[in-house]
């Protein structure tokens, strides 16, 4: 039992030493059907990524976030209510030439309020990793709600490594 605990502690230390935590914000313009009802999306993300080092070619991990779609005005003068999602996903990134990165997140977007529970969440990203501390990216994310409309947005994001 002591050997198991020692090995588990060593593995935890190695994993912890080779991980990165990034937090960030993003803003986007709704696309598709969502653009008829919503005019802006704002969100925040936190990533916990693993890789051999900060300069690793391939990194993987998990992410959680928050996305708010701001409702637009209707032709009759009313307002469409904002809608929010909490995406929970696995994430993968490939870094090329130490600065260019490409990646994807896939998981589930939990809808807050509204009539639906949420749906499958996906995000594709292309960006620049500046000094392994700041990441600027362009993204497209989509939450495919089971019973309702799809919520997609394209925009820009900024992540900072802690």
Question: Would you give an account of this structure?
Answer:
With 162 residues, the protein is mainly beta. It has a single domain (20-161), classed as Beta Barrel (Porin). 10% of the residues lie in helices and 64% in strands. It is built from one helix and eight strands. The chain has one helix at residues 2-17; strands at residues 19-31, 38-50, 58-71, 83-96, 100-112, 118-130, 134-145, 150-161. An eight-stranded antiparallel barrel has the order 1-2-3-4-5-6-7-8. A hairpin with a 6-residue loop joins strand 1 (19-31) and strand 2 (38-50). Residues 4-14 have low confidence and may be disordered.
Concise overview:
This protein is mainly beta and 162 residues long.
What topology emerges from the helices and strands here?
Layout: H1 2-17, E1 19-31, E2 38-50, E3 58-71, E4 83-96, E5 100-112, E6 118-130, E7 134-145, E8 150-161
Antiparallel strand pairs: 1-2, 1-8, 2-3, 3-4, 4-5, 5-6, 6-7, 7-8
């Amino acid at each position: 039992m002591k050997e198991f605990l020692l090995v588990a502690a060593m593995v935890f230390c190695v994993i912890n030493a080779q991980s990165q935590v990034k937090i960030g914000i993003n803003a986007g313009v709704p696309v598709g059907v969502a653009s008829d009802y919503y005019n802006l999306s704002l969100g925040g993300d936190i990533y916990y990524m693993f890789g051999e080092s900060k300069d690793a070619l391939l990194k993987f991990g998990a992410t959680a976030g928050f996305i708010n779609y701001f409702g637009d005005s209707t032709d009759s003068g009313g307002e469409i209510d904002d809608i929010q999602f909490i995406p929970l996903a696995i994430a993968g990134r490939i870094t090329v030439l130490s600065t260019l990165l490409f990646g994807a997140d896939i998981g589930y977007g939990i809808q807050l309020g509204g009539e639906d529970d949420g749906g499958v969440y996906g995000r594709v990203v292309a960006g620049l990793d500046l000094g392994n501390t700041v990441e600027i990216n362009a993204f497209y994310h989509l939450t495919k709600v089971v019973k309702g409309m799809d919520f997609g947005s394209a925009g820009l994001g900024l992540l900072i490594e802690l």
